Amino acid sequence: MNNMRYRIFTLLMVVEALALALLVAAGHFDTDRTAPARRCNRQLVRAFELTDLAIWTGARYTRHMSQADTFAAFQDSMGALEHFPEGALAPLPPLERPFRPEAAAEPAAGAAAYGKREHEPTS
Amino acid sequence: MNRHLKILEFALSTLMRHKIKNLAVVLVYTFVVFTLASVLFFSQALKKEATLLFDQTPELIVQRVTAGRHGWIPLEYCRAIEKIRGVKSVTPRFWGYYYDPPTRANYTFMGADVLPSEVRSMVRGRFFTPAESWGCVIGQGIADARLLEPDDIIPVRGGDGRLYVLRVKGIFQSSSQLLTNDLVVMAVADWRKIFNIPAGAATDLVTRIPNTREIDTVARKIQERLPDARPISREQILKTYDALFDWRSGVMITAFAGCLAAFAILAFDRAAGLSADERRTVGILKAVGWEVSHILELKFWEGFCISMLCFLTGVIAAHVHVFYFGGTVFAPMLKGWSVLFPRFQLTPHAEVFLIVVVWFLSVLPYMLATIIPSWKTAITDPDLVMRG
After folding, report:
1. Do residues A9 and A20 share a domain?
2. Which B residues 238-277 touch A at CB under 8 Å?
3. pTM over 0.80
4. Given phi > 0 = left and psi -120 to 50 = alpha, else beta, which region is A8?
5. Domains in chain B: how many in total?
6. Whole-complex ipTM
7. B188 lies in which domain range?
8. Over the stretch A62-116, which tens digit does the pLDDT of each residue have?
9. Which residues, in sequence order, are bridge partners of residue B105?
10. Which domain holds residue A79?
11. Does A112 lie at the interface with B, CB-CB under 8 angstroms?
């Protein structure tokens, strides 16, 4: 019996590995099975122009995370203690990148060049 | 081959000699793997779901900011935005929040007159027609909270203090709960009456831009022409959800930090050196003729048996927990104070990759922590080792 330990252990490992493989495969088929429901949800997003998941309905800045004011999460009043657990679990808002594509920098560069020319000594 | 099996058999016998100690290690180790895998599976599944859904969201939403807060946007802004080159269309959105005292829940009221035909199949009952005043379609969460069925009524107190009665024409299918759980869709005119909103105002404007490379340019031009406007691009919406679930998974792991710390101490304890008993065993094995490679193989098998058993058990338990029980352990943390919480079925995404990540984070450090001190002892003289 004592020499059987490695066989029992190997059998246990094989059973567990097979179980995990089956679960992963089942999950893969589940993803395919839920595809029609997801397609419907995508149509809903498009039809109603939705922007957020309806998970946290406790406050407006947790219901519409992406539409919240830029100084979320303390929105109910300045300096108020956050009282919604989901608000406390929200990350700091990402630094809002101003919509300034590279082309917008050109006038500034032009102005700098103009300024430099203005201060150049005249010969 | 026979030699390897004999060493494996010996390793298992060694582990069985210290049953209680190794059982404690297995329990803590399995729980650590379970927690780590659950958090990774859960956050990845939700993040992927949000990404798959919101790639259909409008390219640009334009809000109006008044005194630092989101205010009603005048419909004249539509014309100013439509004139910008690259903009295909600008349509107003009408939505707002309503606190329902009987259920103590917040609902999202949305005004919509034009309803695409493909959406009608997603409703139990039917949609209201533009001619039907005070008809509405509600989310499954509201129907459950107020025990509503099609043709029931919802009394709503309006912004003017009057009581309005909405009649439920249909209920969104439960498969769309992730999006529609707290939604009440009604005609725009009814929405205006309830919230007392003037005719020329909307909540925000949806700007459709066919060429996605022009989104930033259009947003800049909107800000230049309408200084109080705040454009929110689709990219920003997707980034918000990306950051949100990364952050949440970090917070969840922090909540289980005590357990992780216990495991780290255990691993450190093993890495710091073998116990006197273990050192004596190594010394005896060397004295009876075992080579360094045999001792290393023995320690490898010991570490492998424990870590693979815990890894496989923990990952299987995490998969069942997240994808079959909806992440019950995390539910209180995830729900917060939401009264209406959607029931949703998560599906795995990139699971094999996540399993490999968990393996690298849990099995590899433990194996190294087992083998390195054994190697240090195995290369020492057996007499010295046994004398301590």
Report:
1. yes
2. 239-241, 243-244, 246-248, 251
3. no
4. alpha
5. 2
6. 0.78
7. 95-199
8. 788 888 766 544 455 444 455 566 666 666 655 555 555 554 444 433 333 333 3
9. B100
10. 52-115
11. no
